[in-house]
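Design a sequence for this backbone.
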């Protein structure tokens, strides 16, 4: 079957609401390369939307999975528990940038992790309110959509959403929202929408994923911690996309001088296997009664075995350092291209290997150009580079390349990106 034939079958059998970045169909992958059904090899800068920090089919992860599969693949932790779940909790409790004793719970998807973090925060505080931020993405469940700060395509036509969820603007000076303005929004919310005594938690991404790889300013994170402490509320750091070496730290919260109370994890935690979790202060995590947390597939033993191998790979293959190196190389390359106004390269931002750039209208200072962005993604795929766009204005190109990519292949990818930018510029 080729790409065209598979696309026809997909149109007949799969719901329209599932979108695609490309109409190329994967048939094989290895490390940072992926082959489509027509035999084309693409360098993978998407990483399964941040799932493959350790690359496709890393040998150590595959070996760990095979070993666990030979023992058993499922029992449900709530029915008959098992050691891999406990071992992974011990590892993450020790690694999490949270002072004191920590505990963890494991689930299957990032949205589940977010839902359970909210449940835990409400159980601990006895309060219902949650404040999220514009541009944030927290999943496709009803609570996840309620928290998400972007309407199209995630929330369009799916309401009404759960109550007691409020939004403030996320600070992004490049698009006209200063830290002071974002903090003013919070004060306004407390005066007009929610009594701070009813606030259970703030939830935010240290680096927004779908929102455009916009980094939370340190001064904003610091002030948020002060506000939360003043009102007896918690901070939930959504690290579903930013965790597991992507920013050059194991957790993106390690870049800040304040700490979250709860951290959600998913995506690259499982090296390609479905797994998510919530890590937090023990006294907070223990607020729900026995039976209040869990899920049939939560903390599946095969996925837990994969996650333990992921941690081993990150630590023993120096992927934190590698993330920083790749991010720096990408920034430098984009700064060079930014000098050519016709290419439409806007703000370059991110932490470590979690980097992105905006595609803007040539000649403007920061006018988003989503049409040019779509053309760039298609042009790059034609040249053998798989890209992902994101952002509130759908004009940001993000980098989620496996951190295990070779230097030579990364250089080739940058060359293909430049040629794609030039091709799009020539057509406009």
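Sequence:
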């Amino acid at each position: 079957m080729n790409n065209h034939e598979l696309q026809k079958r997909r149109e007949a059998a799969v719901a329209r609401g599932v979108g695609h970045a490309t109409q190329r169909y994967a048939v094989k992958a290895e490390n940072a390369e992926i082959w489509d059904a027509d035999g084309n090899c693409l360098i993978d800068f998407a990483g399964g939307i941040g799932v493959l920090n350790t690359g496709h089919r890393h040998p150590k992860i595959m070996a760990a999975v095979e070993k666990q599969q030979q023992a058993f693949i499922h029992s449900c932790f709530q029915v008959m528990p098992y050691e891999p779940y406990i071992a992974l909790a011990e590892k993450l409790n020790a690694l999490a940038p949270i002072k004191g004793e920590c505990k963890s719970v494991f689930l299957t998807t990032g949205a589940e992790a977010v839902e359970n973090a909210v449940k835990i925060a409400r159980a601990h505080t006895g309060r219902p309110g949650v404040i999220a931020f514009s541009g944030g993405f927290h999943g496709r469940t009803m609570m996840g959509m309620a928290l998400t700060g972007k309407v199209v395509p995630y929330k369009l036509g799916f309401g009404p959403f759960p109550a007691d969820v409020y939004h403030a603007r996320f600070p992004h000076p490049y698009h006209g929202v200063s830290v002071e303005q974002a903090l003013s929004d919070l004060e306004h919310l407390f005066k007009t929408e929610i009594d701070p005594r009813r606030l259970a938690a703030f939830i935010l991404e240290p680096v927004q994923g779908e929102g455009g790889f916009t980094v939370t300013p340190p001064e904003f994170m610091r002030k948020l911690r002060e506000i939360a402490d003043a009102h007896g509320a918690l901070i939930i750091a959504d690290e579903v996309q930013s965790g597991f070496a992507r920013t050059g730290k194991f957790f993106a919260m390690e870049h800040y001088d304040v700490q979250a109370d709860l951290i959600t994890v998913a995506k690259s935690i499982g090296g390609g296997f479905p797994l998510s979790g919530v890590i937090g202060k023990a006294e907070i995590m223990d607020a729900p009664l026995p039976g209040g947390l869990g899920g049939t597939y939560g903390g599946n033993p095969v996925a837990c075995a994969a996650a333990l191998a992921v941690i081993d790979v990150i630590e023993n293959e120096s992927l934190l350092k590698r993330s920083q190196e790749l991010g720096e190389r990408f920034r430098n390359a984009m700064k060079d291209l930014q000098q050519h106004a016709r290419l439409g390269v806007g703000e370059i931002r991110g932490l470590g290997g979690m980097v992105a750039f905006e595609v803007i209208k040539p000649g403007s200072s920061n006018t988003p150009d989503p049409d040019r962005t779509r053309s760039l993604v298609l042009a790059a795929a034609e040249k053998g580079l798989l890209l992902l766009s994101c952002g509130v204005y759908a004009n940001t190109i993000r980098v989620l390349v496996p951190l295990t990519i070779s230097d030579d292949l990364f250089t080739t990818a940058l060359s293909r990106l430049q040629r794609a930018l030039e091709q799009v510029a020539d057509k406009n």
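The first strand starts at residue 26 and ends at 30.
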